[in-house]
Amino acid sequence: MTSDDAALVRRAQAGDRVAFSELVRLYQRPVFGFVYRLIQDEGAAADVTQDVFVRAWNYLHRFDAERPFRPWLYRIAANRASSRREKDRAHGTVGLDDVELDPPAPDDVESDLERKELAVRVRTAISELSPQQREAMVLVELEGQSAIEAAEVMGCSAATVRQHIFRGKKRLRQLLAAYVTGREPNAEEV
């Protein structure tokens, strides 16, 4: 945690709403991006992100200001995203947003359609990973955190994070092989 974060956290723990607002300003976009990558629905990600900061405010008194703030906040985000995914599954909600691209030039329609199809397939494949694989891959591969930082967020060892990433990449290769090669994977590959 940076010294600025530590000072803001201590001030916020003392009831300084301006300090907490600054923490929200610093972390809102990264938390939204993290949540969005986990649940793949923009509206739901915005709702979850708001809930993350409400919970962070409500439980800030329990946070040990000597520890890093970001992993604690991301743990809340991961838990809230997981709860949202479970709720959506129970209600039959699917969370795959359409990819928003600028309108293509008339001669570029085919490549635009290919990009959209690839984006949908990748997002669908990511949604088929286990929650642990998806979370580890988002934290390390997309958020740029180290395996040690991701382990702190996920509540496991760095070796376990690396294992989730290895298995997640293997599973993505299997799921996307049909699209890349033009053939469906056989039962042994899936």
Care to describe what's here?
- The protein is an all-alpha fold and 190 residues long.
- The protein folds into 2 domains: 1-97, Rna Polymerase Sigma Factor, Chain: A (Orthogonal Bundle), CATH 1.10.1740.10; 99-190, Winged helix-like DNA-binding domain superfamily/Winged helix DNA-binding domain (Arc Repressor Mutant, subunit A).
- Helices cover 72% and strands 0% of the residues.
- The protein has helices at residues 3-13, 17-39, 42-59, 69-90, 109-127, 131-142, 147-154, 158-181.
- Residues 93-104 have low confidence and may be disordered.
Radius of gyration: 19 Å
Q: Please summarize the sheet with the most strands.
A: none
Number-wise, the strands total: 0
Q: What is the helix tally?
A: 8
Shape summary: elongated
Assign a percent range to the helix content. Answer: over 70%
Fill in the CATH topology of the largest domain: Rna Polymerase Sigma Factor, Chain: A
Briefly summarize what is shown.
The protein has 190 residues and is mainly alpha-helical.
List keywords for this structure.
190 residues, 72% helix, Arc Repressor Mutant, subunit A, mainly alpha, Rna Polymerase Sigma Factor, Chain: A, single chain
Layout of secondary structure:
Blueprint: H1 3-13, H2 17-39, H3 42-59, H4 69-90, H5 109-127, H6 131-142, H7 147-154, H8 158-181
Helix pairs in contact: 1-2, 2-3, 2-4, 3-4, 4-7, 5-8, 6-7, 6-8, 7-8
